[in-house]
Design goal:
Length: about 375
């Protein structure tokens, strides 16, 4: 028996290809229509002779794997973000208090800043796994890398803030002899170190926001215009809250004003982030949404208490604690929102499609032979 692909003697080549096409259309010789199974049903992707519509995408995964790998950071990173903001806000307050003669406020904020700096160092090294890794990052200075720039910012901020805090021990030195001379020089050194730390403090407060926005995590990356400002406001709020807790009410005036400024700055940045579009959803939903809502309530309560409780030590302490908790909750909420957006492919795929459609609309209809813009 002659096969469909075997040519008969004297048979034209066209007849051979016609028989081959019939064999492909009816592989079992049943006279069935193309695209129909033996049981009469259509093959996948076809309804009779017409192609079947593609089902809508569920955005579950990409071949069983997530499109983005979610951050593997633990609680150490949001805790480090909070401690860095607290240290930066305390350094700013301490420098202002030193220049304006608020000795109790200066002393309290310098000590708080040193404690926050130590706690932040612990959380950072605990996340890195080995202390030597921080040292290794100092081998390179790369201006285009937020991580490298942040490492050098911390290297400048940490020693100056530490020296300023240690100089608060000067009153414990003897007043006569070499120790007395040293005791008179130490405050000047402390003022210079405090001014240096205050000059670097804005970078300490904001570089972590730049670091998060530089990642591919959708809710962090799209928030790049507002995330550093949000962290700057949170740093002022945290520094003011710590000062209200540790400083007598008579010298806490600058801390109250700083709390108001930080609250306004933080709320403006949060409103800007909320208008991002689809990638702003994780900031309103789930665990992150609950943390951020609680932070807003505590921020409002703490700011009101700071303004109304000027003469009450108890109200000042409660207001300061509320401001500290608000700043911490915002850091943890932003962290949780980023993790949630990385785990849901919708926040990666849909914004890409929107950007592609916008570019195509701006480019207009393609000319003959011209390629359409790609994401």
């Amino acid at each position: 028996m002659t096969g469909a692909g075997r040519m008969l003697p004297g048979e034209p080549a066209g007849e051979r290809f016609r028989r081959l096409g019939d064999r492909l259309d009816h592989p079992n010789g049943g006279g069935r229509r193309r695209g129909v199974r033996r049981d009469g049903g259509p093959y996948p992707g076809r309804v009779g002779d017409a192609p079947a519509p593609v089902p809508p995408a569920t955005f579950a995964s990409y071949y069983g794997r997530p499109i983005l790998k979610a951050p593997v950071w633990r609680y150490d990173i949001p805790a480090y973000l909070f401690c860095g903001g607290l240290a930066a806000g305390s350094a700013l307050l301490a420098a202002g208090a030193d220049l304006t003669g608020h000795d109790a406020l200066r002393r309290a904020t310098r000590i708080v800043g040193l404690g926050a700096l130590g706690a932040g160092t612990y959380f950072l090294i605990n996340d890195l796994g080995r202390p030597a890794r921080f040292h290794h990052m100092l081998r390179v200075a790369k201006p285009t890398s937020p991580m490298s720039v942040g490492t050098w910012i911390l290297a400048c901020f940490g020693p100056s803030a530490g020296v300023a805090a240690v100089t608060e021990l000067a009153p414990l030195l003897p007043r006569h002899g070499v120790s007395g001379l040293l005791g008179r020089l130490v405050p000047r050194v402390g003022r210079a170190a405090g001014l240096v730390s205050a000059a670097v403090a804005p970078a300490v407060a904001t570089y972590t926001g730049v670091l998060l926005a530089d990642t591919a995590v959708p809710s962090w990356h799209d928030a790049y215009p507002g995330l550093p400002t949000l962290f700057a406001g949170g740093a002022l709020v945290a520094g003011a809250g710590a000062a209200l807790v540790t400083t007598p009410t008579g010298q806490a005036g600058p801390a109250r004003r700083l709390a108001v400024a930080g609250a306004v700055l933080e709320r403006l940045a949060a409103r800007r982030i909320s208008r991002m579009g689809l990638t702003a959803e994780p900031y309103r939903r789930g665990h992150a949404g609950r943390l951020l809502r609680a932070g807003r309530l505590l921020l409002a309560a703490g700011t009101a208490g700071a303004l109304l409780g000027r003469r009450s030590r108890a109200v000042s302490v409660l207001s300061g604690a509320a401001l500290l908790a608000s700043s911490a909750l915002v850091r943890f909420g932003v962290f949780a929102a980023g993790v949630a957006s990385a785990r849901d492919p919708r926040y990666t795929v849909l914004p890409q499609r929107e950007r592609l459609a916008r570019r195509r609309a701006e480019a207009g209809p393609p000319r003959d032979g011209a390629a359409r813009p790609t994401p």
